[in-house]
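Let us begin with a simple case.
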Amino acid sequence: MSETEEQRRAGALLEAQAKASAMFQEIETLGLIRPGVTESQLNKEIFRLSRDKYDAGRHWHKRIVRAGANTIHPYQEDPADLTLMEDDLVFIDLGPVFADWEADFGRTYQLGTDLDKQRICRDLETIFAAGKRHFQQHPDITGHDLYRHVCQLAQDHGWDYGNGHAGHIVGEFPHERIHGDKVALYIHPENDQPLRRLDHSGRSYHWILEIHLVDKAQRYGAFFEELLTLGDLPADPGQSSDGSDRVI
């Protein structure tokens, strides 16, 4: 594939991510994340916003809103619906499609002032940035290598890692799928292929990096995700991409 076409694809993915970031910022600004609302109701409100204002009525994966004890569960699980409480952590994981390009964006919000919960939120972005920097510094890194590195970073900061993988490919909607393949297209402990490789059409793969930290004893977790292969490192820990604090 030509350099110009690769640049076009990269630009489209970055634009989709920027729209997702703006949508998340509006979720905060509108005060949608608040005590007393159920996860399912908040999910519906977010979908209406994405459809009506951001023209993102399609989401390429199920929309995730997790609060309280549900934040320890990975994407694959479907825990019972909870109501957001005063001191909860809440994470949102969305896959909106903007003009046929996929975004995958996740952030965590703190409703209270618990210091340990503040720390896990800060550590999310620190670990994401360290994982992305490690990827940038190792051109031949495999899915196995990056997954193990992320798990070690979590452990070094005093947390468990909450998922069996640390990300996946992203691209034009719908992105490449191999039925039943939960390894080669994921940042997975059994994926020994280099992440920098070409797909079946000769295009560069682009990847999402997911960070899911959990405290199993206290039963809470936190989640952060965005593009690995494109874009800058996140803003300072504890700050959203526009510089505002995500303690609500």
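The second case is a distinct protein. As before, the sequence precedes its structure tokens.
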Amino acid sequence: MTNPLTTFDIQIPQRLRRVSLHSGLLALFIALPCAPLLAEAVGDVSRANTVSAPHEEFAWMSGGVGDEAREEMRKAAASYNVHVVFSEQRGSYLAGIPFTVTRVAPGNERRLHSALSDGPLLYLKLPPGSYRVAAQIDGVWQTQQVQAGAAGSPARLSFVGKDK
């Protein structure tokens, strides 16, 4: 007879299985070192904010996937004068959206930047002036005009796709 303190019963469909405490502890001991790897992989998703390179013509930040990334974006929001949100009609956020920013001046248009937004939030720090922001959602380019001014009162744009 086995010692009741060193075994426990597991119900497996169709039959009862007796497993030793040592086997269970061994399985737990093997699995525990993998936990930080899994947690790190999940954590990477929430830290997906992307910031423009210092040599670019204007500063921008995209992301907002996960609580930590969204909080980071919220804290930095006051520094940017154009705030863009990508979503579906029912409110679900979208990520991985191609966008372009074009400076619009009388008789002169100049594309300043094209990139991919890593999350539903895109913040732009544009010099004062008129711009056209375009985003490709569901394979269709949408375009909106925006007047960029001081960072204290940001212009807000929303690009909305069809619900899937």
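The longest strand covers residues 108-117. Residues 52 and 68 are 19 Å apart (CA to CA).
Keep these points in mind for the review questions at the end of the chapter.
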